[in-house]
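User: Some background: our group keeps a shared notebook of sequences we're curious about, and every so often someone picks one and asks for a predicted structure to add to the entry. Today it's my turn. The entry only has the sequence so far, pasted here. Could you supply the structure so I can complete it?
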Amino acid sequence: MPNQEQQERLLVPTGETIDELQQTDETTARTTDAEHSRIRLRLYTSHALSTWNSRLFEFGAFLFLAKIYPLTLLPASVYALARAAAAALISPSLGSYIDTADRLRAVRLSIRMHSP
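Assistant: Of course. Here's the predicted structure to add to the notebook entry:
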């Protein structure tokens, strides 16, 4: 078991309660309005780029199917219907999981599922 110095160096909790760990003192750094603005800008930019990517993929997939099957829109329609049906069927169970699961674990799983 590491001694006190090793625990502090490794940032290993030394048995404090959660309340003691969450208490802040006067030396705790506070975020400024400029930092909040910068973080907010990054968050909004990330969301905008993510939404743009999603919509571009949906549009591109439709164009791809329309190019492969130029005489009919049936494959593109079936693809869109299948995506919508899957979303409608999966959403309730996914929502229940997110509501009951640990938030950090759910976010990590979401990131892993979106990454190729």
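Suggested note for the entry: The chain has one domain: 32-114. The longest helix spans residues 33-68.
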